[in-house]
């Protein structure tokens, strides 16, 4: 499948009220499992990929290693793949796009906080980055713009919500296909956010958030699990090892 066809197929899966569900993968094996379970696309998790490669999240993974991991995921499945690329690893937008397209990926996440300091980036600066990525990629990549206000901000929740909406609409105007207000979880606020933003909205599914059915009812178009599947797999492996070390049955439970 060509890049443009793969990106078009991924873009078409973003349907408000009938969301694309993405149990994020971290390697070829987990990607195959996601596709075999019937999910129509695969997303990577930067945190899960980084940890599986022996690094930490926050752009500590050398970009060549991260892109090589994305390429392995793409080769492992026949469905579109979207890559979590943090804030782009400091690459110029045109180079970022060129190197990502070379992996065969159909989309990417870009976040709007600085991986080094944890501070929110200037909204205009982030919009310029997204616009440059869109200009370099044309229709060949689905751009998911992460909005980190609820992850980074403190203080008045109403002001945080308004700022998140402002950023989301600014990023959509810059060319993002979808916006991702990570950690937004309250059902009322999710519904208000969907209504206030001109475009598809991605929500992170984790303990404490509404379930898939409720998020669909609220008009969400994309649901990600982040590093949730990876963390669950690690926890299961740790439990098996503890049981084995204690003389128990590692396969029980």
From TrEMBL:
One of its GO terms (molecular function) is lyase activity. Transmembrane segments: none annotated. Keywords: Lyase. It holds the Pfam family PEP_mutase. This is 2-methylisocitrate lyase-like PEP mutase family enzyme. The keyword tRNA processing does not apply. The keyword Lyase applies.
């Amino acid at each position: 499948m060509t890049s443009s066809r793969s990106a078009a197929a991924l873009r078409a899966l973003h349907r408000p009220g009938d969301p694309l569900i993405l149990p994020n993968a971290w390697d070829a094996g987990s990607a195959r499992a996601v596709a075999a379970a019937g999910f129509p696309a695969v997303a990577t998790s930067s945190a899960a990929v980084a940890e599986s490669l022996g690094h930490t999240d926050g752009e500590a993974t050398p970009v060549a290693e991260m892109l090589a991991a994305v390429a392995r995921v793409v080769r492992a499945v026949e469905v579109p793949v979207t890559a979590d690329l943090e804030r782009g690893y400091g690459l110029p937008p045109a180079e970022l796009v060129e190197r990502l397209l070379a992996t065969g990926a159909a989309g990417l996440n870009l976040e709007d906080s600085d991986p080094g300091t944890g501070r929110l980036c200037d909204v205009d600066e982030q919009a310029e980055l997204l616009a440059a990525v869109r200009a370099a990629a044309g229709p060949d990549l689905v751009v998911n713009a992460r909005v980190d206000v609820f992850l980074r901000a403190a203080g008045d929740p109403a002001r945080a919500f308004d700022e998140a909406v402002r950023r989301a609409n600014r990023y959509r105007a810059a060319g993002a296909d979808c916006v991702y207000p990570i950690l937004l979880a309250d059902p009322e606020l999710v519904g208000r956010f969907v209504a206030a933003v001109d475009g598809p909205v991605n929500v992170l599914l984790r303990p404490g958030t509404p379930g898939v059915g409720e998020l669909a009812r609220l008009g969400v178009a994309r649901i990600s699990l982040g590093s949730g599947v990876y963390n669950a797999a690690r926890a299961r492996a740790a439990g098996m090892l503890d049981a084995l070390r204690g003389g128990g049955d590692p396969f029980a439970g």
